[in-house]
Structure formats: structure tokens, C-alpha cells
Amino acid sequence: KLTVLKMVPSIIYYLRPYFSEINAPSVRYSIFGGEKLYEDIVNDWVKCVPNSKVLNHYGPTEFTVCSNYYKYKSNKKNKSYNGVLSIGKPFKGVDCLILDKEEGIASNNQVGELCLSGNQLTSGYYKNESLNLTSFFTHKTANGISKRFYKTGDLCFMDDDGDYMYVGRKDFQVKIGGYRVELGEIEYHVRNHESTKSKNTLVIDVKNTSNNDELVIVVESIQFDTKALLEYLNTKLTDYMVPKKVFFIDNFPHNKNGKIDRKALRNIIKIKR
Predict the structure, then answer these.
(1) Is the dihedral of CA 263, 189, 16, 88 positive or negative?
(2) Which pLDDT tens digit goes with each residue over 93-103?
(3) Which residues pair with 220 in a beta bridge?
(4) Angle of the 183-191 helix axis to the 227-236 helix axis, nearest 10
(5) Residues 6 or more apart from 142 whose CB is under 8 A from it?
(6) How far apart are CA 221 and CA 216, in angstroms?
């Protein structure tokens, strides 16, 4: 008879095979945070919690801990980017801004680094002044007040309605053959294929035998024929963005916070190669 749930999105991937058996009318709030929340799986999950409000929370540990939220709209069009549900608007007392590549203020719908300010912002990293100098800065807001902001490392943009859309991590952008690639865009197309729609998938960069970066798909599944998937990706992506190999794994590794551990996953793939 749980009434409030808060989970990392990875959890409902493990629950997905049992969605047809789950009926939890006692749940009033189903809250997600900590990872990208894909709209397609939420569309299925809401049937399991028919009386619940579904919220997508966003916020880094340094902001202790949530800064933004988006309320999922049942039977209505929701905002998403590359299939990832919007992180919505900031909570009361939170200031958000987006910095462009030159560290100026980005305009609406321009992708840049999301920065946060508010009373819940940490005073800094313990005994790490060099990181503090690169992570925090002071900015004068529209009302003329100087505030201390934190650079989240997350790429986002704000739409014309003031809702923030999550694009990906700055460190999830990689260079392949001299081209900058956003892994989230590739993952979006991978997830749209029939063979992977109900599966947990990731695209990661790994070093090949020539010590060059190479894109691979990792699927949390038993092995299946990937020819159709790769052919589909060739119709949706430019050649350098198409992963060359697909790896299968029984369970993705997770860190202490329940998030998928990409570093550990790279090490697993390195062994499998």
C-alpha cells in the first residue's frame, strides 16, 4: 500500500516485464530522478499507478538535491527531447541559466550548460579549491542581484515556455573521426527500433585495437540478430554516428546511487572485446 514512490528510472526497466501484473492504485505520487527519464516507458508505467501524479525531478548532489520538476500529463502531449521527458521548470527560490560555448547567456532553444543558484547550493567541494574555481561563479541576475551559480555539466535548453529540456552530459559528447557526437541522439534512434524498444540500451565510446574511440551499443538482453537494427540506424544517422558493434549483457552495473555505471560498463566491454 505504498503511496509515494521515488526511483531512478533504471528501476522501471527491471519492472517492465511485470507491468501487466502491477496495479497500485494506492500510489499518489510516482517521482523519478537521477537519470534520463524516457517518455515511452512512462506511457506504459502510468497504467500501473492509475491514481498517481508522475513527476520528473532533476537536480545534482551539489544542489541538495532537486532544482527542477516536470509533471507528466496523462493522455496529453508531453514535452520531450530525443525521447527524454522534460525536466520542466525550477522550484521556487531556484535560479537557472544556460551558458553557451563562450560562457555567455544562451538564448531560448539554444543548447548550453545548465547552471543553478539557490539557498540549497553547496558551499563547495571539501579541500578542493581548484575544482571549486572551475565549478562555481558569480553572475548578476535580471533583478541586479549577484548570485553564486554552479555549473552542472548537463547540456540543456530552455524553450519559449520556460521549460528546460535535457540533452545530455557534457562529458557524454565524444569525438569520433574528428566529429563531435552526442550519445543521447544515437540512443534515441536505437531505442526507436522494434528490437530494442522494450530493452535497456546504452551507447558508449570505447577504445578499439588502434586506440581510437569507437561507438558501440550495449543491450541488457539475451543475444539477438542485430542486422535489422544496424540497417535502421544507417537510415537515420550519418555514417560516423552509427555504432559498429553491439554487445549484450545480463545486467548493467550500477553505482551506489543506483545509476548506471558507465565506467564499469566500459571495463566489461573491454573484457568482452
Answers:
(1) positive
(2) 999 999 999 99
(3) 200, 249
(4) 130
(5) none
(6) 15
